[in-house]
Structure formats: C-alpha cells, structure tokens
Amino acid sequence: MMRDLGTANIPAEELDELERYARTSAGPELRDLLLSLSRCIRDGATITVADDSTALTPNQAAERLGMSRTHLYKLLDRGEIPFHRVGRDRRIRLPDLADFEARRQRDRRELAERFANQHRTRAEAIDDIADLL
Amino acid sequence: MIACVHSRRARPTLRLITEDLTAGWESPHPRRLLADGALESLHPLSELPHPIVTKATESFGADPANDHYVGAIASSTKLPLLEIRTAQWRGGVWEDRATGVCWLLVAGLAKGEHQDRDDFYQRVKRENDTGDPRRWLPTPEDERLLRQETAARLLTTWELAVQRQILGALREVHSGGSARIDIPHPQPGQGRLALLTLAVTPVRDPGYEADEIELEVAAAPTYASTSLSWTLTVRGLISLSPPEQGWDRYKDTYTNIAEPGGWTARLSELEKLVAAGKLAESEPGSHSHYTHREHLAGNTIEGHAVRALCGAFFVPTQDHERLPVCLPCQERLAELAD
C-alpha cells in the first residue's frame, strides 16, 4: 500500500497554528511527529504514506528519484541503496529509498550553499594556504 | 623552499603607504581602503597607483640580474637601502635575504637642495644617526599580507591547472569512458589533495537518450571537507558545466545530464577558456523558483538553501524576481492548484 499526499497548498498560517498546538498541547511523541511533519511540508516535500513492506521495481524507484535506470543501477551496484531479489529482479524497499532520498537532499542542499558561498570558501582556502607559508 | 614561493618584486610596507605617501596618488581609492582597514582589497600591493611604487616594482622584478637603481644610500649605515628615483620622488628599497622579497621601506620628495627638514635624504640620515631605521622594516602585518597575496596567487594558478586537467580528462571521455585525475595541493611539495574520477555514460533507452556525466571527488583524508577540497569540487563542476542547479549530488559523487553529444560540445568551450587562461564562472539559477514564501526572507539573510517545487535547491537572493519562472515549478504549481 502506498499513497502520496500533496502539501503545497497548505497555508503557512495553518502550519504556524499546527506548530503552536504541537508545542503547547501535544505529548512529546506527537509533538515531535507534528513538528517534523510541519518542517517537511514547509520544505515543499511530498509526503508518502506506505507500509514498511512496500517494495518498488528499479523502474519505479528510478522514476520516483527522477533519475535514469542506468544511474539507479550504478547506485544499487555500489551498495548505496539496499535491495533484495525476487527471482532475477531487484526490489527496493520504500523506507530504504526514502532514506537515500533524504541523504541525497541533504547533500544537494549543501552543494547549493557551497555554490552560493564559493567566494567565502575560496577566501578560507587562501587563509589555509597562507598559514603554510 | 619558502624563498621561491613569494614574488620577489618590490612591494610597499603599510607604514610607507600611510606615513610617507601622503601625496602623489594617481587614484584616491587605495588610501580610502587603507583608512577603512580593507587591507586585502589593496592586493596586489606592488600595483598600487603611486609613481614611486611603480618605479620600485619596475626596478626590482623577478630576476635580480635585471635590477636597476641609483646606488646604495650612503648615509643609511644601519639598514642597507638601495635608492630609486622618479621625478621628485625618492625611495629606499631593502631586500629581505631570508625570503628574497624586496620592500620599498621609505620614500619622500627631494626638497630644497636637500637642506629642507622634510627632504628625503635628510630624513634617512636623521633616522640613521639619531633614530632607528629598523622601525621601517616589514611588520608582522606586512608579512601576513605578503603570505595572503602569495597564497591567492598560488590558488589561482592551481585553479587554472585544475581546469586544464579536467579538460585533459574530458578529452578522453567526452563520448564515453572513465578517466582519473590526480590533483596536487596548491602549494608545491604538499603532496596530493585529491583523486578525481570523471566518467561519461551514454544512455540510449527507448524514450530517454542522454549522456550522463559523473565526477567523483576522493579527497586525501587530511583534506576531506576542507575549504580547499570544496574549492576543488566547485572548480571541477564549473569547468564541466557552469549552471549550478544542473548538478545532482550524493556523497562525494556529482552527476549531471546532457543531451547526446553535450559533453563533446562542452569540450570545445573549455578548450577556448584554457587557451585564454580564463577560469570558467558558475551560473546561478537562470530562473526563479516557487517555494514557500515564509521561508524566503530568513534564508536570503542567512545564505541557506531552500528547495523549490521542481526539486532544485537554491540560495535565494534579492534579485531572483527579475528572472523568468522555472517551467517545471510552474507545472507543479498548476498541478497542485487543480
């Protein structure tokens, strides 16, 4: 079972309201769940509800990740995404795919920041070289 | 070792710029920068627009065999100074034997047939006889600026070399294959900084044809995640493809997709840049993206990246609203509105 839930039309004020509720009235576990949910929504993420045993074919996984099958197979071969076999075919558990996607998003975010701050990074590199002279 | 890293050509000290060169500037900017304490913006100090600085640089360049000066200043017995002249300006240059660097230590105008108290020669003699000319020697701050300037030059030279190495690898693999690039530390003698692997895979599936490129950056353990290895990564990526948002990343592997033949096309652009000795420049997003408005103000100030509806990450800037809207973002927004 797997279902995608859209989030982009939720007004920011309602998210404020949700976070206020989470902080003031919810118990610790629900509080953490609601706050991380709200953070994902603010980030523009699509939320997928699935049971842990949901498994995808390489084709489906590549489509969800927005990459070619060739590239996905490389990642599978390198052990970056766990998979199991059904006969000769490979299957990827959805939670493993979500883990990979979360790490990839974090890495891409850092790259965007490194591009934006490249002049500062370069100035720091100059300081590091100057320290050796 | 250190002696050959720094440029030998004559450079002024901060004391000289502040105290001795109170007039004669060809531009008001340097003294303004100095007053603001923006010392790094003065680089390179040897090129400051003042006639006596220009004269010093011309007189003491890379090769000591080409030095030309009037002679030693006889009255300066405590500090060996070589005299240079241009119009009314006079200067004393001292060569630091430890580093090989020449410094313009003292300068002034020749005045009143050398009888004037402010006359350059009078000042040098007075300092020698009743003061201490060693106070004119480069201070730790002067030495720091020299190291900064040398480091900046080493880094630029190295970035050009990296771009050339990337070009060499791309020549091998632009239509498919993989190549390794050994990247040394910018400072000679410091060993390897990183090993790069560049691979192009032509994908010809029904409905999807593309040439996928992959750059893997394996930094030597000492340099992992340092500013230097990030400078290398950014330089490598920009050499291959300047648009920032085209790059995908997972761990230390960076991937991008071009139409079939796209990397062959990039090869000839990169050839031109390398031949001209120019570094490729990165292109921030050429489109504006849709994202959560509430996030924008804060992220513009802090320099953090946000995710757009299309999935691209970008650091919002004030001027993004002038750009055309990203098409995938527009489509996603329309889908969601239905």
Brief account:
By secondary structure, chain A is an alpha+beta fold.
Please outline the helices and strands.
The complex is a heterodimer of chains A (133) and B (338).
Chain A lengths: L1 E4 L6 H13 L3 H15 L4 E4 L4 E2 L1 H8 L3 H9 L6 E3 L2 E5 H23 L1 H15 L1
Antiparallel strand pairs in A: 1-2, 3-5, 4-5
Chain B lengths: L1 H4 L5 E2 L1 H7 L8 H7 L15 H9 L11 E2 L9 E5 L2 E7 L6 E8 L10 H11 L9 H34 L3 E8 L7 E14 L2 E12 L7 H14 L7 E3 L2 E6 L3 H15 L16 H10 L3 E2 L5 E2 L12 H11 L1
Parallel strand pairs in B: 1-5
Antiparallel strand pairs in B: 2-3, 3-4, 4-5, 6-7, 7-8, 8-10, 9-10, 11-12
Question: How many beta-strand segments of chain A?
Answer: 5
Shape of chain A: flat
Radius of gyration of chain B: 27 Å
Largest interface, C-beta within 8 A: A-B, 44 and 61 residues
What's the mean pLDDT score of chain A?
A: 88
- Taking pLDDT < 50 over at least 5 consecutive residues as the criterion, the unreliable ranges of chain B are none
Largest sheet of chain A: 3 strands, antiparallel
Average per-residue pLDDT of chain B, rounded, comes to 89
Oligomer status:
heterodimer
- Low-confidence residue ranges of chain A: none
What is the CATH architecture term of the largest domain in chain A?
Orthogonal Bundle
H-E string of chain A:
EHHEEHHEEHH
Key phrases:
heterodimer, A: Multidrug-efflux Transporter Regulator, Chain: A, Domain 2, 2 domains, three-stranded antiparallel β-sheet, two-stranded antiparallel ribbon, 5 strands, 62% helix, flat, B: 338 residues, alpha+beta, 3 domains, five-stranded mixed β-sheet, 12 strands, 21% strand, elongated
Account of the 3D structure:
The complex is a heterodimer of chains A (133) and B (338). With 133 residues, chain A is α+β, with helices and mostly antiparallel strands. Chain A has six helices and five strands. Chain A is flat and about 60 Å long. Chain A starts with a strand and ends with a helix. Chain B is built from ten helices and twelve strands. Chain B starts with a helix and ends with a helix. Chain B folds into three domains: 2-138, no CATH class; 155-276, no CATH class; 293-337, no CATH class. Chain B has a five-stranded mixed sheet. Chain B has a five-stranded antiparallel sheet with strand order 6-7-8-10-9, with helices on one face. At the A-B interface, helix 4, helix 5 and helix 6 of A face helix 6, strand 7, strand 8, helix 7 and strand 9 of B.
